[in-house]
Design brief:
The chain has 294 residues and is α/β, with parallel strands linked by helices. It contains 5 helices and 11 strands. The strands form 2 sheets. Strands 2-1-3-4-11-10-9-7-8 form a 9-stranded mixed sheet, sandwiched between helices. Strands 5-6 form a two-stranded antiparallel ribbon. The protein is globular, with a radius of gyration of 20 Å. The chain starts with a helix and ends in a 21-residue tail after the last helix. Bound molecules: zinc ion (ZN). Residues 40, 117-118, 199, 250 line the site of zinc ion.
Length: 294
Amino acid sequence: MNRRCFFWAGALGLALSLLFAANGLAAQYKALIVTGQNGHNWQETTPVLKQLLEETGLFTVDVAQSPAKGEDMSGFRPSFQDYNLVVLNYQGDAWPEETKAAFVKYVKDGGGVLVYHFACAAFPDWPEYNEIIGLGGWGGRNENWGPYVRWRDGRAVFDNSPGRAGGHGPMQPFQIVIRHPEHPITQGLPEKFMHVPDELYGWLRGPAKNLTVLATAFAPADKGGSDEHEPLLFTVRYGKGRVFFNGLGHTAKELKSVAFIVTYQRGAEWAASGKVTQPVPEDFPTADEAKVRE
Ligand code: ZN
């Protein structure tokens, strides 16, 4: 290596370390994505979920990957307490009792949780998990798990009628309607905005304690829906913990929707900190036009 080359290599190294130092300063929160089993393609969505958190500049992100389905889970013990945010992209075998207890303690003590899409189907027989996620679906859940939460006459109401928990019609584009515009996650977003064709989750049910509906989407019966305004973005207060549910995003393709990206990033910051500092981006969807980022 000649001298000039040496100089430029040194300059590049310095620039890179300054860049990383700047990133380190900006990243205020530590996030952990928990995955490794899911009826959905977690291998495909996890890197996207990670990148979307990192691009806010607010998070450094680790991934806790469980053993595969059916394998020995006894060593799966993510250190939840080291993080400000736990993103759940997991639906599968039960965690060890110690891990379950550590997760409940993490949330109770003020941890942030983001429940992503099919994580609402995990752990039907774990009562604390059902309380933490507020509403769940599938896994044999029914009216014994709690009410449906419906948006009727301008407010959220419990519907205790018996029936299934969890379902959706074929992939369809839908409009999301903000029901709580003063919440940090939704503040400043337009009242109505379009999402790309995706599963429109419906019939979720659960304890729904301390649950605040942020946004709904109407699921028409002629497109396989409940004919109700389904809660797709909501928060749950569990102990001192903040929980945000985002029902959007079946595969990596739907994660390109700006409606998903922005609600995910804002919900993550709120769950981690209780506030949202991110501005609403200029490419935010409108009431009749979805937007995607390639
Ligand atoms: Zn799905």
